[in-house]
Amino acid sequence: MDFSFEALIFFAVVFLLAAFIHGSIGFGFPMVATPLLALSTDIQTAIVLTLIPTLLVNLISIISEGNILVAARRHFSLALLAMLGSAVGTQILLTVNSDIFEVLLGVVIIIYLLAEKIKLKLSWIREQPKFSKFTFGLSAGIIGGLTNVMAPVLIIYSLESKYSKSDTVQASNLCFLLGKIIQIFLFFINGKFSLNEFSTSSAMFIVTSFALYGGIAVRNKIKGKAYQKILRLLLFILAIILLIQVSI
What we know:
By secondary structure, this protein is mainly alpha-helical. Helices cover 81% and strands 0% of the residues.
């Protein structure tokens, strides 16, 4: 697909915004970029365009928290489950319309945010760590493969597992990283990653780096309790965006 100059400028603005948000909270790059890109292209193309920059964003986010090898050992099993789920979700995306899954994701997020009001108990996440890791890792991957939005499921898992800010950022970005790698492979073998799209995605790789570092500088100043409030607000905004996007 060939892109006009105006479209490329729009893409650059979207990537700058998404990278800054991701840098500042450790989440949000594909979550912000995908629905905005989809305003001027289709969902598959939007996902393809985010693939290469997302690799950069995930790697830098993991490195920025330090203790990389420790984090990799601690969260690798969760990331492998997310990778497997992403492979399944991506294959479905290549053949089936994913609007219904975006609606489902939006509803699940709203239910979670209203959990305290409706007395929904999620203590089983901490009481059954192996089962919850399998459930959330696999489902995050599947939803990420379908919608390019893995973060909400992982945020819920991280909040209920009482992860620190550093663990939340590193675990989630490791899941994103392996999920994107398998997505790139599947899009490539299915002929969905053209040279023009690859070139555009690679160019945006450069654009995102500047905003990402600025966002990381902001994140280092955010305290733990404020960070959890920001994550919950982000979940709410995302749920609304998903539901509005599907209704348009």
